[in-house]
From TrEMBL:
Keywords: Hydrolase, Metal-binding. The lineage of its organism: Bacteria, Pseudomonadati, Bacteroidota, Cytophagia, Cytophagales. The keyword Metal-binding applies. GO terms for biological process: carboxylic acid metabolic process. Gene3D superfamilies: Fumarylacetoacetase-like, C-terminal domain (3.90.850.10). Residues 75-277 form the Fumarylacetoacetase-like C-terminal domain. This is Fumarylacetoacetate hydrolase family protein. The keyword Hydrolase applies. It holds the Pfam family FAA_hydrolase. Belongs to the FAH family.
C-alpha cells in the first residue's frame, strides 16, 4: 500500500493511494498513521478493511495539501556521512560505525510545503534521503531479523543549516531541527512493495538543475545494518523514522559552496516512493 495524509497543517486525515490511481479518504477506518496504528498491525488491518470499504471511500480532492505521511513520531534518527561519495565530497573519512544524530520532531512538514530559511541563516542546504519507518518495538535486534521491524519507506529531505551545524559548537542537531527541515512523504510505501531498499535511485534538483543523482546501493551501512545497530543503543518505537543519509551533491560539497536563497525551488524523489517539491522562503 501507499499511505498518505492530507488536509490543513495540524488537521490532516489518513488516505490511501489505490493501485488504480485513486487517492481515497480512509478517515472512517479510524485513527491516524501514528504509533498506535503501527503498534496494532495497522497496515494489515487497513488492507483487510479496504477489501470491503474501498469502493465506498470518498476521493481526496485533487488540490488537497499532502501532509507528512506520518503523524509526529516519537523520534527522527538520522545517519551522517552514510554514502561513500558524499563522505568523499565533504573531505571526511568514511565512518567506521554509523554516525547518529536527531532531528526535532517539530521539523516535520508536508512534502510540498515551503522550506523556511531560518532567521540569521546563510547556509541552508538540501539532502535527499531514504526514510525507514519502524513497524514494531525494536530493541537489540539481530542483523538477520532487522527488516522484519520495518513498516515501510518514504522520501525525506534532511534540510541542514551548515553554519548552525558545523560552526556553532556542540552537536549537529542545532543545524538539523529547524521548522520545516524534515518534509516527509508524499507516501509511506509499505515494506512489501519495496523488494530491496538498497537498490533505489534517488535524486534532487534545485531550480531544475539536477545536483544529486545516485542510488541507495552507495550506502556505507545498509538499511538492515542501521536498524539493528541503532536498536543496540535505544528502543525504536512503532512509527519512528530513521533517515539513512544522503548521497553526494549537497551544497556544502560544491566549490564554492551553494546554498538556498528565497525563491529557489527544490524538487526530489526516490524510485517507487514519490516526489517532493519545496520553495525556499525567508523566515517571517
Amino acid at each position: 500500500m501507499k499511505l498518505f495524509r492530507f488536509g490543513p497543517d495540524g488537521h490532516e486525515h489518513p488516505g490511501v493511494l489505490l493501485p488504480d490511481g485513486r487517492h481515497i479518504d480512509v478517515t472512517h477506518f479510524g485513527g491516524d498513521f501514528d504509533e498506535t496504528f503501527f503498534e496494532t498491525d495497522g497496515p494489515a488491518r487497513l488492507a483487510h478493511w479496504l477489501t470491503a470499504h474501498a469502493p465506498h471511500c470518498p476521493d481526496v480532492p485533487a488540490d488537497s495539501r499532502f501532509g507528512p505521511c506520518l503523524k509526529r513520531p516519537s523520534k527522527i534518527i538520522c545517519v551522517g556521512l552514510n554514502y561513500a561519495k558524499h563522505a568523499a565530497e565533504t573531505g571526511a573519512t568514511p565512518p567506521a560505525e554509523p554516525i547518529l544524530f536527531f532531528k526535532a520532531t517539530t521539523s516535520l512538514c508536508g512534502p510540498n510545503d515551503n522550506v523556511v530559511i531560518p532567521k540569521r541563516s546563510e547556509k541552508t542546504d538540501w539532502e535527499v534521503e531514504l526514510a525507514v519507518v519502524i513497524g514494531k518495538r525494536a530493541s537489540y535486534v539481530a542483523l538477520d531479523d532487522a527488516l522484519d521491524y520495518v513498516a515501510g519507506y518514504a522520501v525525506l529531505n534532511d534540510y541542514s543549516e551548515r553554519a548552525f551545524q558545523l560552526e556553532r559548537g556542540g552537536q549537529w542537531d542545532k543545524g538539523k531541527g529547524c521548522d520545516t527541515f524534515a518534509p516527509l512523504g508524499p507516501y509511506l510505501v509499505t515494506a512489501d512493495q519495496v523488494s530491496n531498499p538498497n537498490a533505489l535511485n534517488l535524486w534532487l534538483s534545485v531550480n531544475g538543475e539536477k545536483l544529486q543523482d545516485s542510488n541507495t546501493d552507495d550506502m556505507i551501512f545498509d538499511v538492515r545494518t542501521l536498524v539493528s545497530y541503532i536498536s543496540q543503543f535505544m528502543t525504536l518505537l512503532p512509527g519512528d523514522v530513521i533517515s539513512t543519509g544522503t548521497p553526494s551533491g549537497v551544497g556544502l560539497g560544491f566549490k564554492p559552496p551553494r546554498y538556498l536563497k528565497p525563491g529557489d525551488v527544490v524538487t526530489l524523489g526516490i524510485e517507487g516512493l514519490g516526489e517532493q517539491q519545496q520553495m525556499a522562503v525567508s523566515y517571517e
